[in-house]
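Hi again,

Forgot to attach this to my earlier email, sorry! This is the prediction with adenosine-5'-triphosphate bound. I've pasted everything inline since the attachment limit keeps bouncing my files.
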Amino acid sequence: MATQERMEQLVALCKRRGFVFQSSEIYGGLKSCWDYGPLGVELKRNVKEAWWRSMVRRRSDIVGIDCSILMHPKVWETSGHVAGFNDPMVDCKLCKARFRADTIENQNCPKKPSLRPGQCEGELTAPRQFNLMFKTHMGPIDDASAVVYLRPETAQGIFVNFKNVVDTSRVKPPFGIAQQGKSFRNEIVTENFIFRSREFEQMEMEFFVPPTDGMKWYEYWRDERYRWFTDLGIQPENLRLREHASDELAHYSAACSDVEYQFPFGWKELEGIANRTDFDLKRHSEATGKDLAWFDATTRERYIPHVVEPALGVDRACLAFLCEAFTEDEIEGEKRTVLRFHPSLAPIKAGIFPLVKKDGLADLAESIETELKREFAVFYDESGAIGRRYRRQDECGTPFGITIDYQSKDDGTVTMRHRDSCRQERLPIAQLRNWLRDQLLGA
Ligand code: ATP
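Structure tokens for the complex follow:
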């Protein structure tokens, strides 16, 4: 399928099945902001939970934090965002459209989409730097002294709380602080559905290590983060690590890699892993006069920890999992659309289908639903032919279908249908909860 067409079909499926809607759609839509519908919100929560499980819960060297979006404006001066979080922007003098000057070769003239900006009759202005932070005012006074920013990344909340966490938790380097939450960037150009928007969510972890161990931990986290995606079903042929060349690195960065995914619109950054050295803690320490050094009581050494940061966008991760899962195949001569999510990411874990409503089958199915709902997102459906009910759940990515038939009443078993292979097996009702729990283990 042509890549453009594939993307259009995925976007249509997301809308049709309630994964993602345009923000404020009935008002004509707010460009570059998206709302997650009933299935989308479950997918997103599952992605965030899978990350939190692997980065925080299952480890003893990382703790979590949840910081406010609005922070002291000086934070963003110290971090370099006020002066340097810019993209170069050009305007078309004819149609007034705006473009990012550094990616002009990927953009189209809005009036003549077959041409690049500036290749039409319109002339482009010289590039100007545009700061990507959203500005607002804190409190009722609307002047420069009340300016605050919506955070453009979650990382700074972690750095400014470094001392709080060290003083209150039993952590010592190497250790990490993880955070998930909304970030805002006034991107000059937004693109590709939820890939690049102006309001999005991030999952970031800052790992604080002795200065001599920076590169060792950088390599560790680069490989770990790659593995997280493949454990959750991304095929290695669609995922690669791209090491940044030295001229691409920020001045404070010792090394940086992107995990890139092969989206239908090309290979693009999914996550960045960077060795940020001691830049951030040092700057915040200098700006505040607070001592952010670590004192190692065993070696009697005092040092500012170096930091390795894996930074991932939740929405970009959701899009990668959607693209990877989106498949069209044929079963029994009929075309079907199926989302082959890893079971732990699937919005609904099992469909519950009484073969017919009568003869007590619906009652039995409802009691199974009640039991499974205590632990899992399941969906009860008694309408239409069983094949159609399976197909509807295939399109939502539901990995298992539980059918209750006459035999169920006799011997207490159900048919378990597997989404990807369409294989069916019989399982005792009494074992369903444990069986489903086993399928969701792992990633
Ligand atoms: P890009 O080069 O695509 O603009 P970046 O290098 O500026 O990304 P980082 O600052 O490293 O991105 O942010 C970490 C992660 O946050 C990115 O890898 C991406 O997954 C996500 N992210 C960044 N900007 C956006 C955005 N505008 N919309 C959605 N996700 C984003």
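The chain has a mean pLDDT of 94. The longest helix spans residues 38-57.

That should be everything now.

G.
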